[in-house]
Amino acid sequence: MNFDEFEAKLRQQPRREIPAKWREEILGPLRRDETDKPAPWWRQWLWPHPAAWGALAAVWVAIFALAYAGRPEQPIASARSSAPDMLQAFEERTRLMAELSGEVVESLPSPADRPRSARRVSQVVV
Amino acid sequence: MPDVFDLEELYDEHVQALYAYCLELTRSDADTKDILQDLFTKLSRQLKILKGVRNVRAYLLRLVHNAAIDLMRRRGTREKYVQEMSKEAPQIFEASDDTDEEMFRWALNGALAELPEEQRAAVHLRLWEGMKFEEMADLLGISLNTVASRYRYAIDKLRQRLRPLYNEIK
Fold this sequence. Notes:
The complex is a heterodimer. Chain A contains 6 helices and no strands. Chain A is mainly α. Chain B is mainly α. Chain B folds into 2 domains: 90 residues, Orthogonal Bundle (Rna Polymerase Sigma Factor, Chain: A), CATH 1.10.1740; 78 residues, Winged helix-like DNA-binding domain superfamily/Winged helix DNA-binding domain (Arc Repressor Mutant, subunit A, Orthogonal Bundle), CATH 1.10.10.10. In chain B, α1 packs antiparallel against α2 and α1 packs across α3. At the A-B interface, α1 and α2 of A face α1, α2, α5, α6 and α8 of B.
């Protein structure tokens, strides 16, 4: 960058410094804004007694843990019905319905008495 | 080019240049302070706008330039004249103990104040920010030829106005 003598003379003239107090006047309110930012809603809600809320949460956790630990074991196997029992109950119900409606139902041999090839047909209503 | 900007660091690094440029354009301490306050308030809300900016100083100078021009346009002509009549242009240079230097600075201050804003901007960016014409054109959003001619016109006017004093104290 080439400057002539006159331009160089102008360049040498020192510009006035910014007043030092402006730094605080400009940045101070911005710093306060930063600290005055509202807390998130959950913190505002918890804020009055954070220890009390924390203790309450711990009590709930303890209650759930105890309730889970003291739960009786479910007899899973007994809850399941076997297929022959279900079939028998179904036939019983069919016969009952037929009796109620006045129809005659031929008693069917139990599946165990039938030949193997006929065991799949479970009912015949006449 | 940092990814994270600290407002106070930005202030310390650039505010002197922004202050000098803004004062050059507005010729008012109060307006300069308002503009800088507004600028730093905006920056505090969205410092991320500086992310990816190659030349932060030039970018901030452009923001100040736009704010100063907006302010001056918003002001009515009448208000401007009342203001100019009511007070002298503020001294934009440091005071000097040397009488000749002080006189030269006082005269230069007055001569700069008489230039149109766009010429003042060109002279300031070239002489006191040490910018190249390309950078100035980019900052001011005008062509290279325009910025160069604005600078030349301004320097010629200053030379003409200050020549007697300059020759005397040289």
